[in-house]
Protein 1
Amino acid sequence: MYALSTRATATGAGWFPYALIAPAMLTLVIVALVPFVYTIYLSLHEMQFARVGDWAGLANYRALLGNARFWHSVWISTVFVALAVPLEFALGLLGALVLNQGVRCRSLIVPVLFVPTMMAPIVVAILWKVMLAGSWGLVSYNVLERFGILSDISVLASPALALYALVFIDVWQWTPFVMLALFAGLSSLPMAPYRAAAVDGATSVQMFRRLTIPLLMPLMAVIVLLRLIDAFKIFDTIFLLTAGGPGQATESLSLFTYKTVFDFWNLGTASATAVVIWIMFFVFSNAFYQLARRTLRAF
Amino acid sequence: MRARLPLLAVLLSIAMVTSAEAWSYKDAAKPYAGQSITILDEITPLQETMKTLVPEFVKETGIQVDYQLLNHFEVISKGQADMLSGRGAYDGVMVHSPQLGLLLQADVVRPIDDLLGNKTISNPDLDLKDVIQPAWDSVAKFKGKTYGLLDWNYNVVYWARGDVLNHPDEKAAFKKRYNYDLAPAKTLQQMRDIAEFFTRKKGEKLAGQPLESDFYGVVLEGIKGGTTFWTLWNVFIKNSGGDVFDAEGRPTIDRPENVAGLKLWAEMWKFAPPGQAEYSLIDVPTVMGNGIAAQTLAWSDFVLGIDQPGKSKYAGKFVYAGSPAGKSGTRSAETEPSMIVISKHSKKAEATYLFLQWLVDKQTQKRFFEVSKGAGVPIRESTWSLGELKQSRFAALYDAMRETLKNGRAKPKAPKIFEVMDVMSGLVQEVALGRKTAEQGLKEGQEKVLAICKKCTL
């Protein structure tokens, strides 16, 4: 952009680059910024059904932050992210390294790996409902029960296991994405540093630690950040498989927000929730960016 | 003079009949022909069938109808959002009875009393006395006003495997154990006994045959949300003499009768598939169709989709009954009378009203059952005697529906009822899964519901 801008100024058309990006910026403002600013506005007002009422100041925020159910849903989302993302990353990296070793039929394996990631959430939910349904599910009945495992319970119906089952489903769906993204990164790494390291007698573990990891770090940081944000927003699979239950065992923050809007019509609190979630993401993303930039030198 | 009286009466009758015959949707719709109305309804096989008939109304009246069908959740969220925001994109919106508390409080539903009294647009042959009660009154009438006509009459029936209930060996064993005859449950206690009796492990015999997988005595909807708590409330709690609100609408969650009803419901979970806490109202018929449970309480419109050759290998082997009674003979059933209301923001109330009348018209209802080949849920008493129902393979199911509908009412008009249900459905799940006692669950429920509303109904 800098080069383009310099060249454009040099040719006397300083406005031209801005004109080029204007439609995109305008679209971004209309579809993202305006609704967000309006959400902040709603969160500061009393909402009578779907109509904006009087100025409420921070009352909606106070109500939200004093709501134990909100904090419970924050906890559920945090546990979900803390379990799912590291697993997806570790398994994805392992798979990418294996793929990068030149396994047979790679051209066949890679497209197949995309299948879970490409599936619509409703398909994923139906698929796993059929797999894990207590007493007749393909996995629960034909595999687990035959070995006497979990024979008298259904994982999705168990308050102790339901969240782990949802983590497992997320790992199943998103590990291939991480794997393929990292594999693409590995495939595009320059060979020269590796040749030099080989000449110097470096072992493969040393090359992995000293070359592969640092070279892949920017890509890894982006993938982890994307997965953290996406996993924290988990909604559809939970909504379709457990509806937040049993009890409140799987009620994520997104599900809590959905219910606050569409079941309870408490739009003031829901708007405050949306703003709080945004603030949480903003703070977290910035912290992650700084960490990745300074400590890991990822950016 | 006395001799002329009969003649006068005959002439008057002829005049009345002529006047009635003179009324037609075509004439009544003349001022509105060319208008376009948008109706939002729920997508089920019932509405999909109705959609095929809508062009007949359009052809007759010249009123264009955009009859949109959305799934259960979307029809609630989108329909309510449209009315509450005042946007008015929909002239008519299908509402389930629990939605009405919020919508009436927000004053976004147009009463139809003036339209009902308008002779120009009201069909004199509509015969509203024929509409099934108490469904219509309980959903549509509130504080002296009428808010709509009964459009859909969802109801929960008792549904069991006739082949196992009627098997001679099973009948004999049941009689020996419980000292009464095995038959479709008429009471909740019988339902519990049947559930216990038929719960068997793989390898044991069922109706003389060794089981290839575990068999369960009962399956119930158990997922959080859905209609889990509605059924518990209206069937188990009310038939135990309890209720969620008192006459003034104050929460009475932890009363002893409610504890008894919840205990009975939770006890049935011992005889149900392990995954019941994730079973929605769609999963229950699927499980019944798969043949791994002996009995259930299920929404009859879903039963229509399962008890069909090719859909389940047990099709034709099922038996039905009305929703079971309580110990003392109390009869409360879970039903969901629903209606399409006219949005207060609609500028085409008359055209919409004509369409709503046409939906419930006897002729339309008859056509509906002709087109659906006898698969539907009646909203009129006269529909029960239609040949399409009497000769239908679902005749026994219709008897069960009729029995259920006698004892079902709409939900109370409580603006925060969904919030109450959300709290309660999570708690009762925990009771059923053994994480809380019924007393603990309902005590906690009472505290939480009181935090939502002190007086919950309008």
Protein 2
Amino acid sequence: MARMKFLCDAERCIECNGCVTACKQEHEIPWGVNRRRVVTINDGVPGERSISVACMHCSDAPCMAVCPVDCFYRTEEGVVLHDKDLCIGCGYCFYACPFGAPQFPQAGAFGVRGKMDKCTFCAGGPEKDTSEAEFKKYGRNRLAEGKLPACAEMCSTKALLGGDGDVLADIYRTRVTTRGKAGDVWGWATAYGRPDQKPGSQQPVPGPAPAPGGKS
Amino acid sequence: MIGLTRIAAAAFGAMAALMLAGCGERPQVSEYKQGKYQGKKDETPYAGAPFNGNRDQWERDLRTRAQHQNEYKRTGG
């Protein structure tokens, strides 16, 4: 088996936030922590694109490199996980991560930063698989149940794919070769494209320029 | 009288041992080896039920499950 990966097809993502909801529900994530988010570029402008982002389980993870207590490890399936018993909540991983994946729950009445929390690829953590302790610290271990991450399996348009990298690449390749180039079957051009123009070739309707630093 | 002395000696001995235990210094801080994972060992996802260590079965199940994300296969298109 190759490495476990996420793949998000920006042509299909409709910013429904189903993945975010699925993740929060599956792992009972506390308020203020988002292991997964949907980022939209040029929101409200024709041709906008959304993409679902969480921990990408990097092959050479910067969070692992900067952690002063070395609480990160990579499983043989390529999932980057961490031991919350060791984490000191310093936040270095947050600064190092290019995706903003590490999250810090508020611990205590004075807003003290708690131990880091992030996407586990629904693989739990270093506690006994599918145990109560594992669920409380890291969330549900779906991989141990023979399931894939809840966000990907719940995605209504199948924009977000999760699983073995080779299998995902095959699925995506089939998809692209079947639908042709981007915008032929799914996405903005299909929904709002003008029939007298070839899909994907229409010019964006002139409109007000997007606000600087638009919604993300 | 001798019995009382013995009890007092035993109590003194126990007290001394207890107080000495307070002087014992156990390491309170982990010794980190730079660049190596310091936490608990995690077991493989297929170690427990329902796979009971059968890695091939687990991989097959995940591969089948991954194909549920391929709607071109699901619809026969």
Protein 3
Amino acid sequence: MRIYLFGFASDDFLGRVIITPSERTVAQLAAQLVAWGLAPELGGPLTVRNEAGDILDPDMTIAAAGLRNGDIFKVERG
Amino acid sequence: MVLRRDDWLDLARKVDWTPRYVAERELFPEEISGRPWLAHDAWRDWNEAYRTTYREYVATQRDKDAAVLGVRAALSKPRLFEDLDPGWVQLVKFHNGTIALAEYAGAVAELRMARFGRDSAWRTMATLGALDEIRHTQIPLLIGHDLLAYDGNFDWTHKAFHTNEWVILAARHLFDDMFLAADAIDLAVQLNFVFETGFTNLQFLAMAAMADRAHHHLFEKTVASIQTDEARHAQIGHPVLRTLIENGSCERAQYLIDKMWWRCWRLFLALTGTAMEYLAPVSARTRSFKEFMTEWVTEQFMKNLAEFDLEKPWFWDLFMDELDYAHHSLQLGLYTYRPTLWFDVAMPDPAERMWLNEKYPRWEETYGPLWDRLERRWQSGGEANTISYSLPALCNLCQLPALFIRPGRNTACTLETDGRRYLFCSEPCRWIFERETSRFAGHRSVVDRIAAGEAPGKLIDLIEWMGLTAPAETGKDLRRGLDPWRLDPVPKP
């Protein structure tokens, strides 16, 4: 199922809307957000958190990680 | 014998008929006159500080109009643009589109108070206020029309408020809340007390000072002339607020003030903050946006609050933090989403970056790398590589992008109510929404409309949906990429 989320990458300056199948992994979601930002070429590990600040398992699916339509997620480099 | 002004003015401005055929409450229904509903006795001492007769009003306004029109005639149309900095021209286009018809909404608001305000003197002041606001609409429309021959996008002076362009949706959302969908009491507190005694100083007096240094004397005369009107009818707010507080409505008064301070701050950082520091030429910048805000808005606001023994808004620390950052973050948004605007946007040049860093000592450290990245993207892939193609997350209250205050400091939050999740740029926007959920819940942001299939998701179609004809009308890089540093010969190794 396709859902829409609001993603905030720590080296960006605003939140972006991400529309994605909820069966994708959290790691794929983070990569999708970073690709829209100003520095998609920067590599390195990414940490994903939900609005409450809990770290999400990168191998989990978006649905299993508890993200639903209209939720916020945050991506930090490192 | 002709009566002297002071012999008749108090009587004339205080003609409060005692209704005999309808109850006072029917004549001034709570729904539109405002809450709390108080019998006229409570309003009897309503007085404005500076009294004006209609004769004096007409004479003064005639002189002000003559001053503006005199400069217009002296310059003559072919010279309206002569010697103006290209960034300044875009600033005027941005200002005109956002302000001209908002002033007309202000006229509707004043007329509402002219009928439903609770005291005759209040209604008289509001009648003059309505005439003011009509004038404030007509002058920019006239001057915008003059400029059409030189730049077709000046038709956005009139057109903007009739479109779904996203900046305008944000402005309209605020002005509908503050002006058009407010009762007389709320209007007096929100429009006259908060907006006009504080924020309009920024848009009109500060801009007038900058216009003088930008050698745009017609704009200077126009905005300075408008602000003198605002200062007169802004007087309505104080006696209304005093009556509210004396009659046990301190909490409501505090809420209206807090709410409208935050909402005005949001729009002004987007409109005035970015225009002052990224479109006005450095030579025209008399102060920074933060300095103007601190000296002309915040200090005056604090004095006003102290006069009524009210508290500063609960979000004050966040506001102070945002003063250093928020409009700089928004500028990056304006630049990277420029095809969705009706004016051009500039990338700051080295001199501007130095100026910004003098005024905001953490600017270079915070924003320099982001502008550098945009520059590298321009060099590697041309202009198309510097435009954002993703949808920005928009706040469900202020309708502006949910920005980081600065990279790494994120204040976005959500709220679930009636089975729907809403996004907010900040706690204050969520707080206002929660306090008046039924007022705001039905409004859909541009992103909501795209998600619901009411607006196209494809950028090029979305631009058209916003009322912009590409490429003629859409915003571009101010210098079309021909920045001096990009044109310098490549140094030999």
Protein 4
Amino acid sequence: MTAMDTATAGKIELRIPARSEFLSLVRLAAAAIGSQMGFDMDAIDDVKTGVGEACNNAIQHASATDRDIQVVFSLQADQLMVEVRDAGAGFDLSSYSEVDLDTVAAEDLPDSGYGLLLIQALMDEFDCLSQPGAGTVVRMVKRCSRPA
Amino acid sequence: MNFEINSRTVNNQTAVVAPVGEVDLHTAPEIKQHIAALSDQGCTQIVVDLSRIDYMDSTGLGVLVGALKRLREKDGELRLVQPTPRVMRVLEITRLVNVFQIFHSEEEALNSLPGGGA
């Protein structure tokens, strides 16, 4: 039985206060789960970063509330799906404007906003559902690279 | 999480900042404050040694970008040294690898600064 076989079809849920000191705990869990699924080191780092970035956003959205952040890891046969949910203020996705990082001058670079770019690059699938006043759900998938 | 910042001043204008550990939403503000304090003291040429950073998220990248912009406003500079492969990867994904001057050693980075950092 491989590491991934033992890990399939499970669901692991974490609930953390919306505070940055708990981020390392979530990343540790993400790394352990990635290892359990048989991901290689690069893929484990990708999952850690993707989950960490989603939690960063959730903490920033929800920090003004007393509501926790929920992180749900769904371990499936061929992929890991992660959902990060907050009950914060939400935001209007259409108002998110991307900077063209290939052409922007250094003095015009933003000090923030690189997180979604990292999630999109490091995870195989990424969705974000958010509406003002209705919280945010970020859903990400990392597929197992080994042959089926 | 273990995180610390080692730093030393090379001269009145130049300092080396060497954070150790994981740079994220929780720890990045410490680097921001550290560089701001050095800048307030007149150190406008900062070398950031990234050789002992296990993990850096977008908050850390934002702090480095912000520091570069603020230092250049004072005719200063920010140089990066020896990013670990993981940090290099996030610099490449965000194309910030084209924005920062990155060196293999502290000595090279210091020599690249006006006055050679001496």
